[in-house]
Amino acid sequence: MAHIYQRRMLISGAALLLISVTPVLCDEGVFWHVADFHYDPSYLTSKDSCGGPVPSPGRYGDYLCDSPWTLINDSVYAMKRLHPNPDFIVWTGDDTPHVSKVNESAYMSTQKTIDIIRNLTDLLKEVFPTTTVYAALGNHDYFPSDQLPPHTNELYDAVADMWRVWFNDSEAETTFRKGAYYKATLKPGSHILVLNTNLYYLSNKVTVNMTDPAGQFQWMEDALSSAAANNQTVHIVAHIPPGHYETIGRIFQEHYHKRFNEIMLKHADVIRGMFFGHHHTDTFKIYYDKGIPKLPCFLAPSVTPWRAVKYNGPAHNPGLRLFKYDRITSQPTDILQYYTELGQANTQGMATWKLEYTATETYGIPDITATSMHKVVESFEKPNSENFKKYYRYNSVSADDPSVVSCDDSCKKKYVCSINALDYVEHAKCIGASDVTGSSNGGPNSPTSVFLFWCTVLLFSRS
Fold it and tell me: Could you report the per-residue pLDDT of 85-116, keeping only the tens digit for each?
């Protein structure tokens, strides 16, 4: 509720003078961001997603495997217990299990993918029946995985039917059926663009030689230009972020990466928040324009505890993220990160979801704007930085596992570069790579000296 405080003073015992004090506007809302459920229906039987032997699978999962239904169900009901009345929910996709691509058809199919998305959709509708969910597809939300096409198909049509109740205009359903992207209105003057960034993914071979798959770039330009012309604000929601993985290089195809970044920076003044998943870890990115921090991008940790053994990825606990935001300006103001400790949950036979950290308190910042997050990254560069130590612990969602190793100065360099160097060439320079793949060791430049920089910090990922 917005409050305007005014003070009345009695003058000369009779006259009443009204003195207006600067209005203090306080209209705080919250919304959940949930990412990467990765439900594995085979967890208790054939364990199709597991990256190694799991002789005694725990009730709530294992660091080598994707989520059992017990974990997924508990996570959504935990959201309801922790904050039952969010303004909305952001769901950034990746719902099906990681399975071997050598013989993917032995494990998955289009119908199985649709069925899993329907299971999760029904769960969210059941637990939050009156809350709008702004949902995006992930690279695993298609069969074969990663190959999301730039045209209508059976899966897009099926999911559009499921999510129709959350679309608030007819155009949203039309563009989703066309390319799995859409615009929604939060309130008059504030919108959400839900993007299908899987079209730009390096692993997507269907779109590799295209210029503007499904016309999404032009649609983005039009939507953002319209928002600017009408003094409106926009949130960006998608599964795959641009930038780099910390350990294995690029994420987008190069020509798509360049155009996406140009569009985001061109319209930075109307974009209030950018929300992604995909990495499974807890991280953020920052867009810079000529050294000036312009846009923060937040990557929520996953619900699945699956670790990328193939890439030496560390273990991480399941996480849930709550954002505070200003309803008047649509500006995100803080992050409350919740988690459950997987080993403890399995031992006790009950998952306890607790607050891991609050961003403003943890890093000593007033808010989570680009300027504030830039100050956090600057603090990382100090020798023996306490803020970086906290960040590194939270990156794996406070997992206590031998796979979470200590991070020396060389390790920290890679993390900081993946935060503040978005451009492929600049990232390669930052880490000291001999090429521009972003996969070598090295150290970061100071954030104040970079042009077109971004922030993503990742401890592990999948291809």
Answer: 999 999 999 999 999 988 899 999 999 999 99
Angle at CA 327, nearest 5°, toward 326 and 332? 35
CB count in 10 Å sphere of residue 281? 27
Nearest Cα neighbor of 92 from 126, 45, 139, 127 is 139
Buried b (16+ CB within 10 A) or exposed e, 233-253: bbbbbbbbbbbbbbbbbbbbb
DSSP one-letter string for 58-120: -TT--TTS-B-HHHHHHHHHHHHHH-S--SEEEE----SPP--STTGGGT--HHHHHHHHHHH
Closest CA to 71 of 30, 24, 36: 36
Cα separation of 160 and 389, whole Å?
A: 43
For the chain, the first-to-last Cα distance in angstroms comes to: 45
Place of tokens 């702004």: 134
Residues 191, 173: Cα–Cα separation, whole Å = 16
Q: At 7, give phi and psi (nearest 5°).
A: -120, 130
pTM: 0.88
Residue 83: count other Cβ atoms within 10 Å of its Cβ: 15
Please give the backbone phi and psi of residue 449, each rounded to the nearest 5 degrees, phi first.
-105, 5
